[in-house]
Specification:
The protein is mostly helical. It contains three helices and no strands. It has helices at residues 2-13, 25-28, 44-66. Helix 1 (2-13) runs antiparallel to helix 3.
Amino acid sequence: MLASLLEFVRSRYVERTDDGDDRAGFWDRIPGRQYTGRYAEAGGVTRKEQEDAIEDVQELAEELEDH
C-alpha cells in the first residue's frame, strides 16, 4: 500500500514523453535552493512545492511504518 502511494505521488510529478522516458533531467541539474530564485518563473516555485509535498508524504509514511 505504501509503495503504491509513493509511486502514485512520484508519477504525478515527473513529466514523461510519449515513449515513457522521464524528462526530469532539467530539474535534476538545478540546486533546490535556486527553485524560488533564479528559476522561479520557469516553474521552480511549483517544483519546490512538489518536492516538499513528496518529502512530507515520505516522512508520514516512515512515521506510520514505525507505529
